Amino acid sequence: MKIGIGNDHAAVEMKNEVTEYLKEKGIEVVNYGTDTSESCNYPEYGEKVGRAVAAGEVDLGILICGTGVGISLVANKVKGIRAVVCSEPYSAKLSREHNNTNILAFGARVVGIEMAKMIIDEWLAAEFMGGRHQTRVDMIMAIEDK
Questions:
Q1: Residues 66, 43, 82, 124, Cα dihedral to 10°
Q2: Which sequence positions are flagged as catalytic?
Q3: Which residues, in sequence order, are bridge partners of residue 28?
Q4: CA distance 26 to 7
Q5: Tens-digit pLDDT profile for residues 109-139
Q6: What is the DSSP secondary structure assignment for residue 33, as one 8-state letter?
Q7: Using CA atoms, how far apart are residues 125 and 103, in angstroms rounded to an integer?
Q8: pTM of the model
Q9: CA torsion, points 131, 135, 141, 142, in degrees to nearest 10?
Q10: What is the C-alpha separation between 37 and 11, in angstroms, rounded?
Q11: What total number of domains does the chain contain?
């Protein structure tokens, strides 16, 4: 599995810790984020990861900014992306099972690293359930074509 990770200046340290955590699990990580704490604009990094996921350059994406909200909004502007911002594991799990999310976002100023790891673990372990959920995902994705 290959995961693209993106972040802004608020999340450099957490990005580095998450990257190491994923690598320890045998997951390849591609860094699309900033590596400096100098102020930058999160839309640049949300779009990079969104486009990489949509193009199939990476299997999934993880985005981290101060809250996770702004960077997830950006990713959701990319056709084919279903990004979710989560502050706890249960929503992350259900976002994969019910919505087939392909990008996970969270906030470095909202969750600590241990909670981030729990959120990531639940998200990665969950599988899309299909069935009635596929109908709903199809409806969501059809909005992009209107």
A1: -50
A2: 65, 98
A3: 2
A4: 21
A5: 999 999 999 999 999 999 999 999 999 999 9
A6: S
A7: 14
A8: 0.97
A9: 150
A10: 8
A11: 1
Amino acid identity, position 4: G
> CA separation (Å) from 41 to 6, 9, 37, 86, 117?
12, 8, 12, 21, 25
Residues constituting the chain: 146
Distance of alpha carbon 80 from alpha carbon 47, whole angstroms: 12
Cα-flanking dihedrals φ and ψ of residue 6, to 5°? -135, 150
All residues at 6 or more sequence positions from 14 whose CB lies less than 8 Å from its CB, including other chains: 7, 64, 108, 113, 116
Q: Which of 29, 22, 73, 66 is nearest to 47 (CA)?
A: 73
Give the domain extent around 133.
2-145
CB 29 within 8 A of CB 19: yes
* DSSP character string of 63-115: EEESSSHHHHHHHTTSTT--EEE-SSHHHHHHHHHHH---EEEEETTTS-HHH
The CATH number of whichever domain residue 78 belongs to comes to: 3.40.1400.10
Tens-place pLDDT, residues 76-96: 999 999 999 999 999 999 999
For 20-68, the pLDDT digits (tens) are: 999 999 999 999 999 999 999 999 999 999 999 999 999 999 999 999 9
